[in-house]
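Comment on both lines for my students:
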Amino acid sequence: MTASSSHGIELRAGALRFAVRPDLGGSIAGLWSGDTPVLRSTEPAALTLPRSSASYPLVPYSNRIGNRRFRWAGQDYTTPDNFGNYPHSVHGVAWLRAWEVVSATTTNAVLRYRHAPDDHWPFAFEVVQHFDLTPQALTARFVFTNTHGAAAPAGVGWHPYFPKRERSHLDIAIAGRWDSDATHLPVRREAQARIADDVARLDYDNCFDGWTGVARITDEKFSLELTSTLPYLVVYTPQDKDYFCVEPVSHVSNAIQMADPAAHGLRTLQPGESFESSMTLAVSAS
């Protein structure tokens, strides 16, 4: 049964339970199979910050805008600090804003965020986020629409956090890895065909291209298959944390500052133009 309250919306299907907090950036509070967390999960009433969530939306850009500035259509823009005394703008604006609940059923929820131009992002847009839960999987889908009066840049992504367990393992086919400078901005691409190792042995905070759209994540509890229509993947495996992240995204980090943003995934949408993307996390027991 659907539970909707000031602390969010819960969906259930078979053994899976899903919770989302529209008021906290449209972020996912948790995904559980029975009592066991599939994602890093917090009961929705206890969640206080999007950055502590199971996943949050990366809209209208993924990852970083270097030194909080960019140039678009001949005009220079700056953006304020949104990540706690950090030199770059991070993950867009939608994760920091309340979302409207459009509809909710026992297995489906639809949220919407409408953005008016402000200091954090100077272009108007609307993004609708659909969640569908079955006994086997969670699917999330974005429909992003440029509501600005001129062509505008657009990017999206999801930021799922996974519990780091004793046998957490990644198997992902890719083509290249973007290495970063000391300030975490990508500066060079290196060929890499695969990530296939235990998470405890990995030390990534990188964007990868050439992703086939499938990431297999296994541990002693679950065998997960993460699939997405988005062409890039950010993998973050901090060695001193009890979680790791596998993030489907539409573009390379800081693509807006690159010589050819479109070649690195950043879209230009005309007024009224939309694009859709999806992510599915299929869950089975190990």
In short: The two ends are 27 Å apart (CA to CA). The CA atoms of residues 163 and 267 lie 32 Å apart. The domain at 55-285 is CATH 2.70.98.10 (Beta-galactosidase; Chain A, domain 5).
